[in-house]
Amino acid sequence: MASTMLSIASATPSASLSMHEKLKGKVKLGSTTNSTAGFIKTKSFGRVSMVAAVNVSRFEGVTMAPPDPILGVSEAFKADTDEKKLNLGVGAYRTEELQPYVLDVVKKAENLMLERGENKEYLPIEGLAAFNKVTAELLFGADNSVLKEQRVATVQGLSGTGSLRLAAALIERYFPGAKVLISSPTWGNHKNIFNDARVPWSEYRYYDPKTVGLDFEGMIADIKAAPGGSFILLHGCAHNPTGIDPTPEQWEKIADVIQEKNHIPFFDVAYQGFASGSLDNDASSVRLFATRGMELLVAQSYSKNLGLYAERIGAMNVVCSSSDLAARVKSQLKRLARPMYSNPPVHGARIVANVVGNPALFDEWKAEMEMMAGRIKNVRQKLFDSLSAKDKSGKDWSFILRQIGMFSFTGLNKAQSDNMTNKWHVYMTKDGRISLAGLSLAKCEYLADAIIDSYHNVS
Ligand SMILES: Cc1ncc(COP(=O)(O)O)c(C=O)c1O
């Protein structure tokens, strides 16, 4: 309960009068704008400043936040008791039995770590050196000139999200007023990240609902029209939520426009190895830009490709035009990280360093990743086959096969997505995205029935 408070109005309500009496001199004057039983909101200098409270919690003015559009789906799924329920909301890999999966290489790396009896001392602010080395090599390729010339500032981050947030803080501090352009649509958290970092953003066209494909002309036009020196956020591979990636030729053209306009490419790589099953193929967009000698930012995540969701392991890489600049940028990234979280966690970093740094484990990882990517490809094919066989309307579902990665963007609108959940117990995000990583071959026919019903019977 509140014991002190602040602003008392000239027309003081009785509840506040009693508070006034209780506080005896702890009250200062302000301009009251409204009052409800027990507390008063005051406005001064244009802000809603404080709440005066009597026998009321100091948190009375805090409103209920809406559930997260992605993680909230999992909460709703847990509460559903229907046996047919399917969670296709969160992008997390499941086995054919729809169980979470811990990779064998991760277990092996953890055993090695236990055998070595490693300690739990703090990491440096920039993270584990062995992790930072392998993560940059995995991304750019070990013999890339950007690494040989020491032009990359790499710091370990709190997975993809934390790495993006750190970069957003760097943009806010060193590029005040610069805009970040994000694709429309994009992963829901991008907007939150830039909003919270107070970085202005706007959208570029990406998805064409008519073709359920890439609106390449729109994308290029919007990147061209952005103020010179903007940050262009690009999904390195397996675009989330659409599963639609530019072709290699289109990537070249995107790089041309970004170079012409002196923009700064900012890659979000959350699915390296998961899109195609090949770590090198999935990094080709980033490598293309780096090979052109461009300065760029790249956030990495090991949530999906190593299944390390809860370990919060990823990295922020800033490619600069000289090693001196890279050293300066790195020092500032550390300076930003220190008051936010001080230093990153060690466990996931050691797992990645052990897997990527050990040739035998690295090969095993690649095989396991191919297996996971392959299972997703199989359910994608089976879903397409089931839809095509069951839907007699002649609708072309082949866009599902052209999409890659964990997701399929079904083109279902909000009302149709609601029908999927309310009638069919299929949990998915309201933008029509389904995670194929949460689907089994056995459930494809059921899902196809749900999609066909929602698509044709709900407007
Ligand atoms: C496009 C994209 N970026 C970043 C992330 C970050 O995930 P995490 O913070 O778990 O690494 C995700 C996860 O779904 C994603 O889809």
TrEMBL record:
Broad enzyme group: transferase
Transmembrane segments: none
One of the protein's GO biological processes: amino acid metabolic process
Catalytic reaction(s) noted: L-aspartate + 2-oxoglutarate = oxaloacetate + L-glutamate
Gene3D superfamilies named among the record's database cross-references: Aspartate Aminotransferase, domain 1, Type I PLP-dependent aspartate aminotransferase-like (Major domain)
Keyword field: Aminotransferase, Pyridoxal phosphate, Transferase
UniProt-recorded Gene Ontology molecular function terms: L-aspartate:2-oxoglutarate aminotransferase activity; pyridoxal phosphate binding
The keyword Phosphoprotein appears for this protein: no
Required cofactor(s): pyridoxal 5'-phosphate
InterPro entries: Aminotransferase_I/II_large, Asp_trans, NHTrfase_class1_PyrdxlP-BS, PyrdxlP-dep_Trfase, PyrdxlP-dep_Trfase_major, PyrdxlP-dep_Trfase_small
Residue stretches making up the Aminotransferase class I/classII large domain: 84-451
Assigned EC number: 2.6.1.1
Claim: Transferase is one of the keywords in the record: yes
Entry-linked Pfam families: Aminotran_1_2 (PF00155)
More info: In eukaryotes there are cytoplasmic, mitochondrial and chloroplastic isozymes.
Entry function: Amino acid aminotransferase important for the metabolism of amino acids and Krebs-cycle related organic acids. No activity with D-Asp or D-Ala as amino donors. In plants, it is involved in nitrogen metabolism and in aspects of carbon and energy metabolism.
Family label: Belongs to the class-I pyridoxal-phosphate-dependent aminotransferase family.
Subunit: Homodimer.
Full protein name: Aspartate aminotransferase
